[in-house]
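Checklist before submission:
- one chain only
- standard amino acids only
- sequence pasted in full

Submission:
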Amino acid sequence: MDLPADLNIRDIATTIAYARTRIGSSNPLLPHSSEVTVTDSVGGRQRNLIEFSGCREYHSESTVHFEEVVPETRPAAKKK
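Returned file contents:
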């Protein structure tokens, strides 16, 4: 895909570094950092570096019952 000429951008490069990361009892391979470098039409460069940290494991439990629900019986209201 060509970049629009009015952006004055010659090149865009993206690099993603992956690393094993301890989350709970596992070590998945996750992005560790990402770098985007933009080179403009006259050779100037801008760099955006993102580092991913603080990954956490979240856990929840739920139970689903498929039983017939019996409505509560309430005593009839007393007449006055």
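Reviewer check: The chain has no helices and three strands.
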